[in-house]
Amino acid sequence: LSIRPHQALQTHMADLGQMDLAIWNTAHGRFVQEIKGERISTRLTDHVELIFVPVSLVFWLWDDVRALLVLQSAVIALGAWPVFRIACSRLRRLVDEGLAEWASLAFVLAYLLFPALEAANMAEFHAVPLAVLPILLALWWVEEGAWGRFAIAALTVAAVKEDMALLAVMLGLWATARALRSSSGSAKGRWMGLAVAAAAALWFAVATFVIIPAHAEQAYGVAEFVYVRRYGELGNSVADIVRSLLTRPGLVWSIATEPERLRYVAGLLAGVGGLAALAPEIVLLSAPALAANLLSAYPAQYSGELHYSAPLVPYIVVAAIVGAARATGWLGRALHERRGVALGLVLAWLLAWSLGYHRAKGWTPLGGEFRWPEITEHHQLAERFFRQIPKDAPVSATTALYPHLSHRERIYKFPALGDASYVLLEVNGATDMHPVELRRRFDELLASGRFCILDAADGFILLGPPRGECVRELPDAFYSFARAQGRLPTYPTNTRFEDLLRLAGYDVIDDPKWRLTSVRLYVEVLTTLPQDIELWPFFVDADGEVAEDPVRRPPVAPLWYPPERWRPGEVVLVETLPWFLPDRWALALGVARGGSWAEPVNRVRVSKGGGAYVVDGTWAVFSPFIRDGGILRPLTEADWPSPWRDRRWTFGAAIELIGARVPERVAPGETLWFDLLWQVTEPIPRAYTVFVHLRDGQGRRVAQRDAQPAWFGPVPTTRWGPDPQPDAHRLEIPQDLEPGEYTLVIGLYDLETGERLPVRDETGAAVGDEVQLAVIQVR
User: Which of 132, 331, 651, 715 has the lowest tally of Cβ within 10 angstroms?
Assistant: First the structure.
């Protein structure tokens, strides 16, 4: 599962590529050497990961970056063995050996299905997941009283990464405590535990306060451990953070009990049905890592995603084993010493939670986070370019290509060049660059004379040193990424812009996990286009306001394959950049000629709507979408406000308000979104404006907004037909508004005269010129 994204070009310089570079260099005698910008540097500026020395040996078995992914998976999987042994050791005290062994498999399953562990394995490659196995081995060997093996395992934990040394300290103290409590009172265990704790504490201090600052000063100009900056209000140095922990308990508590952080802790416990809470002394051993995640100002650390939670899982699972044993004992006594039955009930509880939580958050085909990216011909084509670059040549590559080329001494992340002899770009993939900047840098490289085009196809470009005649013109094969070549759109349309272009349809590409959305347009070229044609795809909110446009994030294809080069009859693919769109949005499209789209005079007329809603005759709005439970789907009439059964208001002679959907509460500084549902009994000759007021208990206006009716574009009253017409509005709530009850008031007026329409209720009685739509709780 972890290799598949790599094959689909979904791994990156950060972190698989840079880890591979440092480990490959370590295997060749250059300990954790890496590249920062255009300079040779070291990972010691950020972390001390001695574990990379033995890890580097894997490349002598398989000299491939994928060996790291296999190794990481294997190390995590091998943790199942100490989990099994610890469970057997604990459960044998309650039931016979055969039943204990079978029951122990339930904990193995819970361990392997633990979502946070799977998330770490799927987050490319990091050092931290490599701590999982030695932590479990250390806990097992403490259980067995194998003090020498315990010391090796605990010190291996300290070698994984500088902060893991604090976990080794806790393991050493745990070993000492267990030795003191054991009937044999092992002196070796006591002294071994103390020695491990002391050695790990010393190593943490040396790595964090000596090694890292010394190297960080050379690279960053600041002699400090840069990651302490992730702790926001707690301070900007280790001393400040420790001081806050000791002297500001209120602040620490307020941070730790924020809803997102509590959900993080609940998620860790959910994987084992909360049984870990019955053995808090085991969970406490993870305190350094748990506190580091829980108190961080960096949300990824307490998201349950990525690699940060991996070292917590061993403690949670072992605590669940101990907690399950305790629960079995308590329940067994309640069942008159029927411990087998009690254990069965506890295991059923464990498995129900483990499987259920995995179904929601797991990363296997059974889990809600399962990903199986498609490997296309484009991805397979990349190998052709990788093979053309000599293995010992310095190279610069865009981020998604970086980990496929990082098995060399020097590789730079484009646009950094250093002494690169080759440059490999994927213009239609992940680049970590603005597309305009990428195009500009490419043009500069060709103009410099240092590089020529060696090969190009389907968005890939390989540049290298001049060889005879220098090729500076991209071949036609390069543009295949921008051509449909027989592909058909998911959502067909038939919208024409004069006799120039026709939108044949579009696809919606959505990543529900990160809520990033893009749209791929299928644009049919009807004639040879002039040089001043510009396609303008954008997105509108429910109230018709522009939510995203190409000003900051232009589509890639036209930058490389401009419209004047498009061939009559071909279908060109124009894909917007992935971005965060509102929960409700609609695609809109316009075409400009002779200047900026911002100037209406430059806009090409829409000669045929083809099912789209045409605005001002110059741009088209297509069917809207809504994010429902995290999943993006087409918005339908079922998502409109429901008509009221027992009330309606009539504005003027023929405009009826027949429904509304208004939130009950909103917080200061937030936006209040609400929808109206109108219906007219006859055509309306004038375009009326909706006024929206929020008033306090004394009738004072505290917020206001006037807008024409809109539903994913303007829908003036002059265009309303006999069918119900939805209408979306927003109202910005002042940041300093006092909590309390406020009344939402709406009405209609003529913008030219300022005259409001009179209002009648469902009985026909006059009620003034406005409607008190709802009472809103601001808090």
Answer: 331
**For residue 376, how many other CB atoms are within 10 A of its CB?**
11
Give the helix/strand (H/E) hosting 424: strand 422-426
257, with CB counted inside 10 A (0-12, 13-18, 19+), is exposed
Q: Would you call 161 exposed, middle or buried from its count of C-beta atoms within 10 A (0-12, 13-18, 19+)? A: buried
Query: What is the rounded CA–CA span in Å between residue 352 and residue 273?
Result: 8
Res. 182: pLDDT tops 80 = no
In the sheet with 395-397, reading across from the earlier edge strand, the strands are 411-413, 395-397, 422-426, 460-464, 452-457
Tokens for 606? 């829409």
Residue 755 corresponds to which tokens in the numbers above?
A: 């005259």
Chain-centroid distance, C-alpha 73:
22
Q: How far apart are CA 291 and CA 287, in angstroms?
A: 6
Q: Write down the pLDDT at residue 185.
A: 56
**Tokens representing 221?**
């100009």
Task: Report pLDDT digits (tens) over 626-670.
Answer: 999 889 999 999 999 999 988 899 999 999 999 999 999 999 999
Pair 128, 289: CB distance under 8 Å: no
Amino acid identity for residue 187 in this structure = A
3-state secondary structure of 738: coil
Going by their DSSP bridges, the two strands 771-778 and 740-750 should be labelled as antiparallel
Place of tokens 């080794």: 168
Per-residue confidence (pLDDT) for residue 769, from 0 to 100:
96
For the chain, domains (ranges, CATH) are 3-224+258-361 (no CATH), 377-476 (no CATH), 483-630 (2.70.50), 640-778 (2.70.50.60)
Share of the chain above pLDDT 90, in %: 91
Give the pair of three-digit tokens for residue 124.
Answer: 């490319």
Cα distances from 248 to residues 242, 259, 495, 628, in angstroms, run 10, 20, 62, 41
Does the pLDDT value for residue 226 go beyond 90?
A: no
Distance, CA of 175 to CA of 148 (rounded, Å): 11
Q: For residue 697, give the amino acid letter.
A: G
Query: At residue 235, what is the residue type?
Result: G
